[in-house]
Amino acid sequence: MRARRTFAALLLTASLAVAGCSGGASDDKGESAAGPAAREGAAGSAADRAESDAQHAAPKKPVSLAPAHIIRTAALEVEVADAQKALASARSAVEMAGGHVADESTERIDDTHVASRVVLRVPQEKYDEVLSTLAGTGRLLSRKADAKDVTDQVVDVESRIATQRASVARVRALMDRATKLDDIVALEGQLSSRQADLESLLAQQAALKDRTTLATITLSLSEKEKEEEQRDDDPGFMDALGGGWDALVATGRWAGVVIGAVAPFAAVLVLLYALWRWGVRPRLPRRAATTPAAPAHLPWPGDSNAGGTGSGPARGPGQD
């Protein structure tokens, strides 16, 4: 009986020992299997943290903005010694910068000096350089520069073009599916109207592109007037004599004009008088002279002129 109990105790003890060894081995295997995974997870989290820290530490890239569209114009007035040479120099400078001459005019003023006006188109990146070159060709009289930002207008036109193109595409798609003649005619009218609007927008876009790509410079060149003899501001004797002679000539000229204007009327009047004097007047009847003779003076008695002797005063009729 004791032997059985002893054997059972030994068997139980051996089984417990085997169970403990197997449990320890399994724990060691679990730990050995979980170790790499834990280490990989820790390494991954550390890498993520390092990358996040690097991203925060690195400087942020600037946000790229749409390029500005600016229309640049300038006007220069320069006095030069020789306008033709200065014009040739300006033309060469613009052509070297990649621009061209848009308009040019030259005139001679009072046969004393030459003036030229030229409109130049130059690329935007060469605008300042060409402007400085042109201003240094002579004595700068005036300078005016202007810059107008039309970026909003350019963006608006581009957006409207995209919308209009989509609209034209929709109308064309409807025309492809339309079967009725009335629908096709109505869609053709819509398509023509929208294509016209699209072409107008494209023309605006081309004009804006040209004005924002090339700057406009208006250059006015003038020669210095030739120096003449200095004259006093107050008129002298010769000036007065010349002025009087000019006035006399002008008066004679106007008198001749007046005489020439009156001469035809005077000739007609003289002709009429001659006809009356020698053609009409001799034929008129002459009137006889009917003037009565004056009565003879009769002397009164006592009148000394009648040879009387009386010394009294002369008496008139009706006196005793």
List keywords for this structure.
320 residues; alpha+beta; flat; disordered C terminus
Mean pLDDT equals 75
Low-confidence stretches: 18-65, 305-314, 316-320
Q: How many distinct beta strands?
A: 5
Strand line-up across the major sheet: 2-3-5-1-4
Order of helices and strands: HEHEEHEHHEH
Q: How far apart are the first and last residues' alpha carbons, in Å? A: 245 Å
Largest pleated sheet:
5 strands, mixed
**Strand-pairing-aware structural class:** alpha+beta
Rg, nearest Å: 63 Å
Shape: flat
Residues in β-strands, percent: 15-25%
Percent range of helical residues: 55-70%
Multimeric state of these chains? single chain
Determine the number of helices (DSSP H or I, runs of at least 4 residues): 6
What does this structure look like?
The chain is α+β, with helices and mostly antiparallel strands and 320 residues long. It contains 6 helices and 5 strands; from the N terminus they run H-E-H-E-E-H-E-H-H-E-H. It has helices at 2-57, 83-96, 127-135, 151-177, 181-213, 237-280, and strands at 70-80, 100-109, 113-123, 139-149, 214-223. Strands 2-3-5-1-4 form a 5-stranded mixed beta sheet. A hairpin with a 3-residue loop joins strand 2 (100-109) and strand 3. Helix 4 (151-177) runs antiparallel to helix 5 (181-213). The model is unreliable at 18-65, 305-314 and 316-320 (pLDDT under 50).
